[in-house]
## 1
Amino acid sequence: MSQPALVLHHYGSSPYSEKIRLAFGIKGLDWASVEIAALPPRPLLDPLTGGYRRVPVLQVGADIYCDTNVILPALDRLASGPSLYAGLPAGLSKAATFGFERDVWLAAIGVRVHFTGDGPADFLRDRKEDYLYIDMSHAAMEPDYPRHRQRVAAHVAWLADALSDPGRPFLGGDRPGALDLGYFHVLWLMRNGPHAEAVDRALGLEPILPWYARVTALGHGRPTALSPEAALTLARDAEPAPIEMRVAGMEAPGLAVGRAVTVTPDDFARIPVRGSLVALDAERIVIRREDEKVGTIHLHFPRAGFEVAAIA
Ligand SMILES: N[C@@H](CCC(=O)N[C@@H](CS)C(=O)NCC(=O)O)C(=O)O
């Protein structure tokens, strides 16, 4: 398979970005790394995303993949290297990851804040107003710490059970995959830093630390730094790739190819992205946008966790 240029827009402390960096490691890929700010403004990313503000974003020429739930299947489809869905049915892996991330994301942030205290004021303001819609200061989250700890610990116990067979180094068996990464990055959010051992004690992580070390050792593949300006040029000079899917089955009235639509996350950072509908099936939505800096681009979103609506 010829290797398309894979560009990841991300920042170092982002757990969802770590999920994708490790996927590059599993697949042994070369990739271009565009480091972005941990909070907006991100003026050199906006032309590519049309307002989608979460991180990471994968760019393959003029195709932009928003959300890790669409990035991982895209990597598997487009890039060489071992499958991210070896050992387990892909649907099981996707469903378990989605459910786990949804159930524990705020609780995991609460656990982290318990051990690390407050971030800077502008960070707290941004996360409250434009991302999580809650106050993630230590003072606001601390009363919920026992509930948050308990919620995460219940999932950790299931994870420990799933990994209890010593002949099973990864969740899918001998080979690492997307499900390992879905669990790992949330634990990484909480453990990353000098307080790791305290987190281990609080959550009962001891039994799964050998697995955690194995996932860490997968590494990040081979990144090369790319400037955001060069990424915009790559998009401008490329055409969106032909897509293999069309609008399929049983959809709401008005969802036809070419129709103006919005695509909006249904959990955090609920900012609608406008475009014209290119394709939609049970797993993915693709919309087309025109931008003066980058020309025509296709944005790809997962169905799970996003709402698509025709614009009246
Ligand atoms: N469901 C999304 C969640 C992404 C997400 O919440 N990412 C965090 C960073 S790890 C984020 O966007 N935080 C706000 C920001 O960086 O602007 C995915 O799988 O990509």
## 2
Amino acid sequence: MFAIRPTSYGGRGCFATSEIPRGTLVHIATTPFTSVIFRDFRKEVCAYCFAYDLGRTWKVRLRGPETAGLWFCGEECRDRWVKEEDPSRELVPVLELIEQAVALARRKSQNSKVGEYDEDFVHEDFSFQSDAIDSLWKHIDGIVISASQLANPLRNPTLNNRVLALEDIEYDSARLVAVAIVRLYLDSHNTSVVPWFTWNGFCSLESHETDLINRLPALLESHIRVFIFLRAIMPNKFQPFVTTANVRAVLGREAANAFGIWQLPLSSESECLGSSIFPSGSYFNHSCDPNVMKTRIGRQMHFTTSRAVREDEELCISYGMMLTMPLQARQDLLQEQWYFGCRCGRCIAELGSEA
Ligand SMILES: [Zn+2]
Ligand SMILES: [Zn+2]
């Protein structure tokens, strides 16, 4: 129905290979490569179907002692998550470690024991070498305009509770990265994975790390903290994959490629409950006059034509709720959140009529 081809304005896009009638389901992105329910909402959003019931806490947890920071709206969702998302049973222990390390470090920090670190959670081979930090910083230095932009650099690289007691946003990022790293580990042991589920499929997306760090320099510190945290706690077999390159690959691709998990039914009042990355869905470019509508159905993303599409026409979605905004507001939002100046047909027409 459509093919992925280079566009005339750069990057790739989806182009209709035949006429497509209005209301045609052109693509289903079945499950995210990685996703996270934001910490504030994790008890209220089903980890499988992303159901949210106005703040009601879901009651169903995983069977067994490891709850892994996951809540489910029912047993069916719980069982499907286990079967589809973690058939190898590699993911739950990692998520559980993150959960426990953060919870314990936060408790200890509150008891003002900062300085003592949680040896129970620190991998025995972990050591923090100053030249490693230097080279990490040097490496990262190259992507920011100037080091003076760093709002709050990690000045004291001592492993302690402050390292493990992640802020909420870092906890969310750590979970997002951990899921991707477990997938990468499984990829390296198993060749029969779904293409869109592979690390390579994921890495075919564009990274916006530089854009993101330049917009929000303080995130650089957060990203480094996430890396150090995962290095400190991830079990041995995952360690070869916990590299700065891989952590940066995930966090750089989350920027501008993530689909927000929005409260349904969607309205201007909807809360953003989490973040998900669907590599196959990321090939749909943005237009302020889109011909494809994206709809979340449970944990799937459905892409349906909102009008008839001609052969060779590009299939475009709207990245956010901006279609009723005036030209400049749309341009500003797209630049700020997705790092591009929109040159869609509608924007060009409106720019022309303004001139
Ligand atoms: Zn559910
Ligand atoms: Zn536009």
## 3
Amino acid sequence: MSIEGSPILDTGEAQLSEDDFQRIARIAKAGWGLNLDPAKKPLIRSRLGRRLKALNLTEFKAYCAVIETGDATESEHFVSALTTNVTHFYRELHHFEMVEDELAKGLAARAKAGERLRIWSAGCSSGQEPYSLAASLIAVLPDAARYDVKILATDIDLGVLKTAQAGRYEAKTAAFPTPQLKDRVFDPGQDPDARDINVRPGLKKLITFRRLNLVQPWPFAGQFQIVMCRNVAIYFDKATQKTLWERFSDILAPDGLLFIGHSERIPNPPEIGLNPVGITSYRKTIAKN
Ligand SMILES: C[S@@+](CC[C@H](N)C(=O)[O-])C[C@H]1O[C@@H](n2cnc3c(N)ncnc32)[C@H](O)[C@@H]1O
């Protein structure tokens, strides 16, 4: 079967024609830099199909029209449906070991001496990444809150940011590489039978959560000593990725560190003033050409 000569997928309710898919892909790229893989069409159809149901729509064409009018709430759902929020505490442990090393080798002492220290978790999802960063920070600099030290945690998705801000997680899903790392984030004194556990209040104090679309202008100018943007750029097309890496390089302080996702790569790091210093880790060393 086809609509206007395009092959269609049968959803059981709404059908996603090739034309509709292309339109959705154009909207996703223009608004959020997202690159929709045609191979993921069935997944996209199923996830957005739920939105059609929620809005009582029977056609993807009508749904596209809602998004194109700029409906803020539906745009949220649209991006959420097209991306995944999967994350873990201390994901890619080697990155956090490098962060701690960096803090121990100088950043912590400089913060104690009054220097500004800024860390950014860009695309923080439900908060496991910034809380892990905060726990690493406190492991090296226990009285970090006394100094000009802050972690910025941003995501486009207000739903995950709400969870992040609450700092409350289902005990059975809060997995960690080691029990010691878990104790850094959650006080072991909490009720062992409780369904949910709370992150240590001291970690929360170090983090500011904000909504931010990474492909739009960033409302801050200061430099960051450490930026983590992991498993986010993977959704973006190559041109959007390239611009993003350049913008991170621009916002990094001299010698600052950038960490990216395990399946992401910066094609020619020196060209944008970055040098590889480990697995998916880069240091800002030289001025951009
Ligand atoms: C797979 S999670 C990664 C979480 C964490 N960084 C990690 O690696 O564990 C990807 C996150 O990127 C966010 N995201 C996707 N597109 C974005 C955009 N244009 N701006 C900001 N965040 C975005 C999603 O909402 C999602 O929470």
## 4
Amino acid sequence: MKTQYYTATSLDGFLATEDDSLDWLFPLGSLKDSSYPEFISKVGALAMGSATYEWMVRNAETVAAETGSPWPYMQPTWVFSSRNLPTIDGAAIRFVKGDVRTVHSEMRAAAGDMNIWVVGGGDLAGQFHDAGLLDELIVQIGSATLGKGKPLFPRRVLSPSLRLVSVHQMGAGMAELRYTVDIGRAAGVGTV
Ligand SMILES: NC(=O)c1ccc[n+]([C@@H]2O[C@H](COP(=O)([O-])OP(=O)(O)OC[C@H]3O[C@@H](n4cnc5c(N)ncnc54)[C@H](OP(=O)(O)O)[C@@H]3O)[C@@H](O)[C@H]2O)c1
């Protein structure tokens, strides 16, 4: 029953370009050849920010062509936004705003004994971390740099609160690092 931030990032720490493109990411590897199938099989609830959700809305046709559905998640999803956003047919989405702790309680109840996936972006994952709710970071580092873009995790988290537990090479395009977050020792936490 963990809360996990599972994401891909560029080598220089960006999730997406400044204009929310992920085109740099797809040539680097395939989800089906990654840890994703096993990871998602243990997820009971998802959280994402509005830019991440709007990428799904904008790319619904591509997602449908690849997965058979414009919304590939069976699990309930909490989308954080202060705005009114369009819905996607067949998606179990709740739009929420504000304190992640309240939402996390709802997600925990829905997920039961499965994990919670914080999809991104980086600041939303940071909000869960700030509240002491993030248990693991699972980061697939792509062999590409972007120079600027949407940050992986805009927080200052100092040693020793992150504990590296595994390193896995995925061909020449990716390396996956898994960290546990030692919440009790997360002393050097701050926004940047
Ligand atoms: N590389 C990867 O594997 C990967 C993974 C995840 C995401 N991505 C991409 O990375 C980019 C992330 O974008 P982003 O950094 O802008 O992050 P984001 O979390 O997707 O969106 C940020 C927005 O979410 C809303 N929000 C966040 N916290 C909130 C809260 N507590 N209450 C209410 N609203 C809240 C705010 O917008 P509003 O209130 O204005 O709606 C905020 O500006 C996207 O392009 C996404 O597609 C890539």
